[in-house]
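Changelog note: in this version the structure field was regenerated for every chain. One regenerated record is shown below for reference.
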Amino acid sequence: MKLNISESDNSLDFNLALSVAPYFRLTETKVVQIVEYIKLTVSDWNKIADKYKIPKVG
């Protein structure tokens, strides 16, 4: 079992996600919308983690 984004790559790269969009029947426009939504959603994760005293890892 693999958790790769493509058949050979599991890096966290938005361009990689865009390149495999056709496998999921997503248009480039839809992928860009999804990526922007994710970026907005996680943009304040540091502040939220601090608020709930979630320790940093690594």
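Spot check on this record: The chain is about 50% helix and 0% strand. Residues 28-42 form the longest helix (15 residues).
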